[in-house]
Amino acid sequence: HLPRPGSQGGGHPDAGADARQVHIAGNELEFMIRVMKGLPRGLEHWTWETVSSTRGQAGRVWHVDNERHVQTLLWLALAPGLPGLEWEAVVPSAGLVQPRADFALPALHLAIEVKVVRIRADFKRINEEVAADCSLYTATQSPYKRVVVFVWDESRSTELYETFARGLRDLEGVVDAVVAPRPAAWVDPDH
Length: 191
Hints:
The protein is of the alpha/beta class. It has helices spanning 28-42, 67-78, 122-137, 161-169; strands spanning 86-90, 100-105, 110-117, 146-153, 174-181.
């Protein structure tokens, strides 16, 4: 989105006074889920060169090592089409806990939670963490009533995805859960 002439817009899409009025055509929730589910296909051309394709230069490997990296990757994919998307949305405190959703779409009353599975055994722990997070994100005083969960799977345990995602969708407030495997071609020679 480019600011209209005469607006106070800078380089950031939210900089102009009219930026929040921009909406994508169609259903934003469906768009977001489609992008999340399509992320593995988009990573087919992610830079992962152990040997450079450019003569005389070192290979480049763009690692996705932790939850913050997954959040950044997801932001890159979602933000251009969802101008109302917010990074790290603070949720009203619940007692001594100050929850913070990874992303939010306030207009949809939607919080987005990102998790990373390192090994197959992490699925159970992540399931428990999501249940706890969702209860905070959708508490009575919270502006969020729905949650979408995105899980990046380093273990590539694809046989668990259907049961795991169905279990997350059964949680109060969770409208969808997407699990994306780390591409199999991403083999790090140093690890």
